[in-house]
C-alpha cells in the first residue's frame, strides 16, 4: 500500500501520537459512514500512518456482543489510540428503527462516560454520495479480481437502510461537547485521506491543549429501599429449610436448562456485610447449577491493567453470552461503597457512579441480561457474634482479617453509603433484593426463591 | 442437586482448598474418561464441594484452539483450583491416530512445563465399563426427558474410537512423576463420588506436604546461528529500495488474502538491539497489510495478573486464529535475554526456557502457525551513532531512555545471551532470521522478502 500523505505530515502525526501516549491519554478515533470498501481503504491509510505499537484497530464486523459492551471492551488502555473501523453508530443504524431514540440516549451517555473517565473520542463521519464517488472511482485501489472480498465482511452494512435525512438527524442528536462529529465528504482517494489526516492533527493538538473537566453529578436517591422493610426476626426450621432447598434447587436446575435454550442471560450480583453469608448463599445457588452454564467471578482489587481502563471495563468482560449465568461475588458496586469510603475513587467519580452503572445495566438489560442484585444483610450485633465465633474456631480463623475489624468500625458510614447506593440504583431493570440472613436458612431460601421467581417470570 | 458426600468430608476438602489458595498454589484437577453424561454428573458433584470463589471450571467441548493452547490459557492463576471436565487427553484421543506419539510427547512435556512452573496437576481417569455401569444406572440422576441434552455437547467424544488397550497404553506412557494418573472405576454414583473425594483429599495433602524441585535443564546449543554470516556492509540504493518495497508490499498484500483463506496463521517475532530499527521494519510490514487481518503486540513488563500465571500464558493469549497474522514487538524471548541478565528470572528458569519455548512453538507449528523470528541486528558503533543522533534531535529524544544507555553498557553480555538463544531455538519449525539493519533500507527489504518467501512456500 502506497502511503498517500507526505512524510512530513506522517512525522507530525506520529509525534502527536507519542505525546498522547506520553501523557497516558486514551484516545478513540471512530470512523462511521457508508461506502463499503472505499471507506475501508481510507481507514487503512490512516492506520498505516501511526506507530503500530501504540494503536489498536477494530472492525466491528466481528461483534457478537451488544454494541456498547463490544466497544467498551475494545477501547485500548491509557497511552493508546484505538481506531474503530465503524463502531457504535453502525450498531445503532443496524438496529431496529423503534430502538432509535433509546440508542441515541445510550450513545450520548456512553460518550459522556468516556469523557468523564478520561477517554477522548474523535468521531469522523465519512459522507458517501454514490454519484459523486463514481467520478473518483479510479483514484481508489483496484480490488484484486474480487479477492479483497475475504476482508469485506461488512457487506450487510454497506449502505444503511435509512435516508440521508435520518442519518443527518442522528449526527445532529449525538453531536455533544463530550464528542463532536467531524463530517468529511468522500471524494478523490488521496484528497480524502489528506483531509482526514489534517483533521486528526487538529484534533490531537486540541486534546493536548484543552483542559478536561470531568463532571460532578447530582446524587438522586429516587428508588425504593428494600432494606427499610427488613425483618431480622425471620427464621426457618431445619426441616422446612431442607424441603424447600431441595425443591428450589431442582426447580432452578430446570430453569437453567430453559435459560440455556433462550436468548437471555442472567447476572447475579452478591453484595453484603462481611460475614453476612454471601458465600453460603452463592454455594446453594451453584450447587443447583450445571457448571457448563455458569461462571462465578470473585472481585478482588483491580489489577494494574484493569486500572488503565475505565472502571466498568473489567466487569464488561465477564457479562455472559445468551444462555449463561454469571455470579458476581462483589461487583462494580465497590465504586459506591468501599472506593469512596477508603478514598480509592474521588468525590467526582463517586458522584457519577450511579448514573454510569445504571447506564451499563440498562443497556445490557435492554439487550439480553436479566439482573438480580442481592444485598445480604445482618444486624451489627450478629456480625460481632460471627466475628467472635470465627476468631474462636481454628478452622474458620482464616475467614477473619484485620481489615474485617477495621471495616466493622465504619459500620455507620458503610450503612449510609449502602442505603444511598440502593436508593440510586434499585431500578426496574436491575433490582436490588435485600435478604435477611441473621437466620442463614431463611436467607438462602429467599435468594433461591427470588432467582427462581425471576427466571420463571422472564422466561415465560 | 443433592450433595453426595458428607458434611465433614466437604469441610475437610474446603479447608484444604483454602490452604492451597493461601500458599498461592495453582492446582489443576483434570478429569478424563468416557461415560458421557454419567461422568459429567460425577464432575458436577466434585465442583459443588468447593468454595466457588477459588475454583474455575472448564469443559473442553467449547475448545476451538489447539488443545495445549486452550488448556494453558484456561489454567487459573496462583491460588486457584482449575477443574477440567476433560482436557488435553480428550484432545489427543480425538486427534488422528498418526499424531499419537507426537501428542504423547507433547502431553508429557506440557505437564513437565506445568510442574516446573509451579502448577500442580492431579489427573483422574474415570474408567468406564458399559456393562458394569448398566447395573448402577438407577443410582444416577434421571435426565429430565432429554432436556439435559442442552449441556451434553460432548456427544461426539462420548466414547473414544479406540480400544481399551490403546487407552491403557496412553495412560501408561503419560504416567510421569510430573503428573501421575489416578484411575477410578465408575460404578454406583454415590460410591464413585466418594472415592474421588477421598482421592482428592489424599492428593491435596500430598501437595501441601511434598517439597517441589523444579528442574535444571542442560543448555543445548545445537542450532545454526545465522548471526555468524551477517554482513553489515550491505546497502541498498534509494531507487532500488523504493521499487522493491512497492513490489514486495503488493505481493505481501496478495499473500495476506491467500493466508486469510487458508487454515494457517502467521506469527512474526521481532527482537533486536535497541535502536536497531525493529519499529521501522514492523511498520513497512503492517503498511502492506489489511488491518482486519493482523494485530501487533508490543510486549511491556508483565502485569501482576500475567505474573500469576506461567510465563508463556500471556503470549498464548495472542496466538492468532487461522487466517490471521500476529506481530510481536519483543516476545517470549525476554526470558532468554533481559530476564536472566537483569535477574527477573532464576538460573533454573533460564535453563529451562529454550525447551519450554521450543515446546510452545512446535505444538503451535504442528497445528496451524507459520513462525518467522527476526533478529534485527546492527553493530555496536552504529548503535552509538544512533543514540547520539537521537539525543541531538528534539523530535527523537523521547525514543532514548537512560535504560537504553545502561543496556548498551552490557552489550557483550547481551551478545552472549543472544547467540545462545539463537543456537538453542533456531528450529526448522520456527526459524530465526538475522537481519543486517545498519543500512535500514537493506534490512527492511530483507524482512519483507523473507515474509513473502515464507508465505509463498507455506501456502503452496
Write the layout of secondary structure elements.
Two copies of one chain form a homodimer.
Chain A: H1 7-22, E1 26-33, H2 36-49, E2 55-59, H3 67-74, E3 81-85, H4 88-94, H5 100-116, E4 119-127, H6 130-135, H7 164-173, E5 181-185, H8 189-209, H9 238-260, E6 265-272, H10 278-286, E7 294-298, H11 304-307, H12 313-316, E8 325-329, H13 338-342, H14 347-367, E9 369-377, H15 380-392, H16 402-409, H17 411-425, E10 432-436, H18 440-459
Parallel strand pairs in A: 1-3, 1-4, 2-3, 4-5, 6-8, 6-9, 7-8, 9-10
Helix pairs in contact in A: 1-8, 2-8, 4-5, 5-14, 9-18, 10-18
Descriptors:
18 helices, five-stranded parallel sheet, homodimer, Rossmann fold, 2 domains, alpha/beta, 460 residues, elongated, 48% helix
